[in-house]
């Protein structure tokens, strides 16, 4: 089959849709090449080759010949050979996976330089300094990434040379200094790696390719993938790209740019430029960059060309792009582009801006945003008016309001956050080794680097608050403190950072609600002025989502107040009203009496007392949701939850007994607590079982619902109550409860003279219920999938315990990428849901189907529920906009 395999693609052969095979970088280099943009020629080794290497530990046999053929072609095109002594072709060997993993994997520049070709390069370029600088960079990068030498050894040697020569920056070093440095670097390699730096250019290239393959599986790459939910088996492509040089003097340089502001979405010139520099100098913050706008003064021709290219890219990709470019002696070269990451707010703004520009339609705009971004926009922000000392200001790199204790290294960030502290990770700049610390921190603050620095890019990707490049801050990691003017901030001092404004405060700043929430609450309208730009964009996209979605969205709400808020947020009913909350507070005593009742009479009295109170709750709820369905779940939790804690009560009784004044009621309570104590309460006397075992309990609740509905009807309201029986495992349970309920409803109709139609249905939250859904549908007018309990019982996971005990280990071992309590397990739990939907509808075609539980507000799960054909999802009021948006995305 060797004829059908193709492991290498020239840049002219690929295109942007081949990301699986060529990685994002390779696919887009090909796309730019074919657009006629100035891309240095090169070729891409596919992810398939990488996967073969990772699986077998060896490059596929065909790879060597294919690489040779493409290298030959490249050498012909460039008119020089790789590493040729008098005029060397140099290349970069660059990683590039399907999904961008900024700074996670390896890239080596200047491959092809050797003791011989460095002089050839010097002669050809007429610049000794440049040639030796490139060579020392190669040994440094190659030594670190390919040969695994500690990078600090090179850095230290470089620093020392700078000190001896009394210069501040590397560009001030002369050719002779760099030449000496090369000798030092080669010695470091020899001692540390136990081998000479390879002089054969092809060997350099092959080793670099292999090391890029291997960089897919470094710990930090794995951690990043887990965090970003990127599958672990994709592998990386490798790009071989002929070198262009930004370090050839002041008319050369390198930069990064966005086609529009990734924080606001506004069009303009956003980026950083660094003169006389190569590759990663910009991101690493070695020297201070200048804003991209300054390039207009430095090199007008290249600047204009760059602006032109950025417009071409935006129109072509129909989206914000970020780019890497290099200018070599006045000649502009494009080295990378991709659809750029952006903040949540910018995602909404850009999507509507692009609609207005006629580049995309509304359906596409809906796909450009997601529920996670919307949720992020609903976080509170800092109160502008608060009088807290502002420490400084940096670049607003990733929005949000974060408050925490200052820590200056990742290790402490992780340690403190494990013990429950909120921390802000403060660094001069971050690098991939800081990833764990960044994950652990509430927010990230750096004193160096711009919007494209490592900290900024990674934080935006994680949705974490970040302020970067706050240059007034003197960060001293060794002494674990920073100074700002006269103020010293020690480790442990509280700081607040605002990722939307870039402001940094000493102390805790109070927070205010987000404008998006204010808008959903109806306290702010989608006007046109600048402050409302975001709200206007959200408004438009939500309206579109509502127009196209099929799933209805209901709320989980237990009282009128929550119900009203849910309604403002767009709820189309209540999918779950938990009645247990109506049994707490002052009513607890009545419930205690109910539980303690020895005789029927006592129990009936207790129930009689509860009835009017419950009824009043429902009257208020039905009024709040007038005209919309309200699903009321009859009492579900085990009764011991309403009784005092067993240990506390035992101690109280024991103490009282020792004083000989034991209280009769406490003694009875203690007995009841013992009687009701269960080893596995979640699998015990709860749900429908309570209704069957405690006479009068469910009928009291049904009566309260029916009387409340009758009262609302008499008041000309439109109550739409639905009665839901929890934890049913067999249709027999449901039939008994149903019969009793129907009788009570008939009585209420009789006494009030109001005609009532109350739907009766059940939760599907036990595997047996799902498996016998066809039978259960005989007695149920609706199903509501209780996916929390269903997940618990299908997996046999106690949801109250597992997250704390072994889920971390499961997530680390990749058994699942995300907790099944967070995102529905489609293969297992989801299969039961899918089958139960079909079986239920087969029995009763007009069966209403919904889901209540955390999954109802989880974006990925919402798509699943859409796909299996539910009628609605129900979630907490705050998640409703998210569910509406995702239901729209699922349908369009
Ligand atoms: P990353 O994915 O970490 O950004 P890249 O492969 O893009 O890594 O390369 C790192 C840096 O080197 C970037 O700044 C890039 O622009 C630069 N670079 C890569 N290849 C070349 C090349 N052929 N000529 C000049 N600079 C290059
Ligand atoms: Mg790059
Ligand atoms: Mg349940």
From TrEMBL:
- Reactions the enzyme catalyzes: pyruvate + phosphate + ATP = phosphoenolpyruvate + AMP + diphosphate + H(+)
Question: Which residue range or ranges hold the PEP-utilising enzyme mobile domain?
Answer: 421-502
Query: Is Transferase included in the keywords of this UniProt record?
Result: yes
The Enzyme Commission number assigned here is 2.7.9.1
Every PEP-utilising enzyme C-terminal domain range: 536-888
Q: Which domain of life is it from?
A: Bacteria
What keywords sit in the KW lines? ATP-binding, Kinase, Magnesium, Metal-binding, Nucleotide-binding, Pyruvate, Transferase
Task: Enumerate the residues binding Mg(2+).
Answer: 765, 789
Q: Where is the active site?
A: 454 (tele-phosphohistidine intermediate), 852 (proton donor)
Q: Which cofactor does it need?
A: Mg(2+)
InterPro entries found in the cross-reference section: ATP_grasp_subdomain_1, PEP-util_enz_mobile_dom, PEP_util_AS, PEP_util_C, Phosphohistidine_dom_sf, PPDK_AMP/ATP-bd, Pyruvate_phosphate_dikinase, Pyrv/PenolPyrv_kinase-like_dom
Q: Where does substrate bind?
A: 578, 633, 765, 786-789
Q: Where is the Pyruvate phosphate dikinase AMP/ATP-binding domain?
A: 62-288, 296-345
Q: Pfam families per the record?
A: PEP-utilizers, PEP-utilizers_C, PPDK_N
Under SUPFAM superfamilies, the record lists: Glutathione synthetase ATP-binding domain-like, Phosphoenolpyruvate/pyruvate domain, Phosphohistidine domain
Q: Which NCBIfam families match?
A: PRK05878.1, pyru_phos_dikin
Q: Which family does it belong to?
A: Belongs to the PEP-utilizing enzyme family.
Q: Identify the PANTHER family for this entry.
A: PHOSPHOENOLPYRUVATE DIKINASE-RELATED, PYRUVATE, PHOSPHATE DIKINASE 1, CHLOROPLASTIC
What protein name applies here?
Pyruvate, phosphate dikinase
Native organism: Streptomyces venezuelae
């Amino acid at each position: 089959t060797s004829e059908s395999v193709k492991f290498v693609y020239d840049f002219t052969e690929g295109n942007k849709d081949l990301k699986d095979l060529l990685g994002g970088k390779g696919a887009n280099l090909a796309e730019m090449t074919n657009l006629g943009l100035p891309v240095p020629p090169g070729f891409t080794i596919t992810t398939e080759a990488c996967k073969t290497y990772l699986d077998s530990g060896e490059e596929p046999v065909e790879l060597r010949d294919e690489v040779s053929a493409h290298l030959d072609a490249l050498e012909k095109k460039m008119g020089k050979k790789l590493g040729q002594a008098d005029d060397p072709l140099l290349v970069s060997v660059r990683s590039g996976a399907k999904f961008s993993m900024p700074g996670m994997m390896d890239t080596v520049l200047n491959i092809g330089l050797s003791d011989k070709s460095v002089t050839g390069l010097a002669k050809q370029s007429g610049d000794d300094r440049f040639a030796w600088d490139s060579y020392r960079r190669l040994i440094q990068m190659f030594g670190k990434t390919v040969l695994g030498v500690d990078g600090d050894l090179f850095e230290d040697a470089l620093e020392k040379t700078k000190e001896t020569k009394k210069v501040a920056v590397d560009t001030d070093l002369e050719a002779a200094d760099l030449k000496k440095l090369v000798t030092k670097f080669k010695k470091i390699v020899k001692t540390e790696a136990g081998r000479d730096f390879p002089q054969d250019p092809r060997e350099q290239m092959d080793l670099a390719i292999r090391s890029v393959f291997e960089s897919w599986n470094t710990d930090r790459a794995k951690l990043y993938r887990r965090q970003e939910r990127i599958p672990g088996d994709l592998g990386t492509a490798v790009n071989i790209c002929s070198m262009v040089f930004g370090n050839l003097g002041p008319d050369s340089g390198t930069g990064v740019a966005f086609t529009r502001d990734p924080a606001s979405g506004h069009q303009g010139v956003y980026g950083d430029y660094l003169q006389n520099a190569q590759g990663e100098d910009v991101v690493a913050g070695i020297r201070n960059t200048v804003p991209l706008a300054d390039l207009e003064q430095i090199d007008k021709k290249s600047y204009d060309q760059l602006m032109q290219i950025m417009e071409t890219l935006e129109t072509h990709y129909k989206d914000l792009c970020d780019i890497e470019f290099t200018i070599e002696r006045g000649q502009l070269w494009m080295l990378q582009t991709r659809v750029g990451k952006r903040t949540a707010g910018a995602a909404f703004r850009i999507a509507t801006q692009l609609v207005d520009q006629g580049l995309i339609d509304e359906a596409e705009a809906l796909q450009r945003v997601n529920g996670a971004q919307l949720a992020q926009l609903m976080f509170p922000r800092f109160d502008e008016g608060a009088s807290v000392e502002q420490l400084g200001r940096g670049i607003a790199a990733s929005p949000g309001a974060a408050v925490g204790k200052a820590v200056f290294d990742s290790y402490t960030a992780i340690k403190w956050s494990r013990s429950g502290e909120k921390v802000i990770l403060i660094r001069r700049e971050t690098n991939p080794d800081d990833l764990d610390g960044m994950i652990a921190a509430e927010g990230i603050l750096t004193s160096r680097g711009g919007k494209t620095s490592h900290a900024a890019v990674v934080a935006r990707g994680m949705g974490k608050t970040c302020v970067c490049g706050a240059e007034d801050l003197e960060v001293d990691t060794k002494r674990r403190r920073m100074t700002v003017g006269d103020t010293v901030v020690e480790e442990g001092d509280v700081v607040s950072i605002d990722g939307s404004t870039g402001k940094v405060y000493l102390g805790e700043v109070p927070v205010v609600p987000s404008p998006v929430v204010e808008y959903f609450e109806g306290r702010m309208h989608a006007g046109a002025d600048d402050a409302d730009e975001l709200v206007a964009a959200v408004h438009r996209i939500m309206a579109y989502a509502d127009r196209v979605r099929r799933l209805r969205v209901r709320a989980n709400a237990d009282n009128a107040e929550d119900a009203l808020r849910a309604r403002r947020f767009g709820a189309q009913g209540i999918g779950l009203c938990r009645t247990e909350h109506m049994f707490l507070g002052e009513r607890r005593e009545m419930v205690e009496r109910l539980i303690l009742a020895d005789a029927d009479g006592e129990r009936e009295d207790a129930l009689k007392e509860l009835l009017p109170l419950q009824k009043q709750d429902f009257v208020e709820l039905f009024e709040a949701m007038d005209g919309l369905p309200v699903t009321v779940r009859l009492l579900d939790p085990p009764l011991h939850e309403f009784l005092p804690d067993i240990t506390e009560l035992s101690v109280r009784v024991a103490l009282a007994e020792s004083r000989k004044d034991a209280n009769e009621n406490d003694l009875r309570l203690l007995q009841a607590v013992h009687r009701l104590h269960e080893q596995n309460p979640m699998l015990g006397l709860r749900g429908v079982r309570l209704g069957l075992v405690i006479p009068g309990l469910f009928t009291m609740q049904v009566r309260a619902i029916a009387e409340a509905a009758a009262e609302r009807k008499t008041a000309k309201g439109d109550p739409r109550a639905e009665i839901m029986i929890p934890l049913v495992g067999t249709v027999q349970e449901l039939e008994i409860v149903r019969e009793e309920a129907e009788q009570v409803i008939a009585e209420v109709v009789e006494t009030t003279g109001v005609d009532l139609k109350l739907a009766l249905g059940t939760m599907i939250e036990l595997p047996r219920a799902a498996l016998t859904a066809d039978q259960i549908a005989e007695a149920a007018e609706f199903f509501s999938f209780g996916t929390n309990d269903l997940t618990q019982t299908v997996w046999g996971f106690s949801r109250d315990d597992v997250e704390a005990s072994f889920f971390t280990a499961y997530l680390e071992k990749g058994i699942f990428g995300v907790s099944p309590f967070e995102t529905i397990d489609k293969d297992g739990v989801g299969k039961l849901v899918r089958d139960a939907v079909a079986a239920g509808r087969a029995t009763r075609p007009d069966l209403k189907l919904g889901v209540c539980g955390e999954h109802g507000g989880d974006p990925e799960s919402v798509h699943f529920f859409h796909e299996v054909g539910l009628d609605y999802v129900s979630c907490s009021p705050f998640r409703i906009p998210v569910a509406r948006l995702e239901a729209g995305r699922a349908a369009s």
